[in-house]
# Entry
Amino acid sequence: MLPLLTRDVHEVGLICQHCSETLVPFDEISASLQAELADWASRYAPVHAVAHWDDRQRKAAGNYDHAYETAAECYAEIADHDPSFPICIEYKISEPRVRSLLGNAGETAAFCQIVNRDNLGVTLDVGHALFANENASQSAALLAKAKRLFYVHLNDNDGRADWDLLPGAVHTWELVEFIYTLKKLGYDDWMTFDIVPKELDPVEFFAAAARLTRKYEALSGRIDAAAMAALQVDKNAARTLEYLHTLI
# Structure
């Protein structure tokens, strides 16, 4: 079970990431943290309110300029609290009954430019990119060009929902491309797993994710940069795929 801190911590305590049931009631949290958590929750609530619209709000919204302005003010305040601390926005096209204000890489990169804080960037979640009908490698290139690629989540899905599957479970070659692209872009920071084992053993599940990712890293590392650059210029999918299969 993984405890999750939410804006409702005062009412529900720490909840389980998987089943959303309370794991640690608020009154059982250390007294030294209760006031700080309650204060954080009250400050975060308006940020969440402008970052996530329910279906009614989305249909009724008429002043989009005000929505972005309010969100930008909130994120600027958060970023200015400690300019040395990186703040990451993890975009997602939708949740059940909710359409996010920032749903894809382009929207989020543009929004960060509006806020204009060097310590505000983006968490690129591979599954969220797929869910938004993006190519995660292209999203990474865009965010890197905008100097907003701060963090990476690895997972997978079928593009229809955010299933948080094992990395490469569906989009194997896309993951190899993504890891290759990150290296090419000079990304040298954390990659973490945003995956859900559901009824499987979490330790076994995350260990498998780590082992598989190392294999994908090794495979991407065998790609010859000059050969790939030539194939990208050639734009011949058959030749590219045959080349990749020589690396297995």
Q: What stands out?
A: Residues 13 and 26 are 4 Å apart (CA to CA).
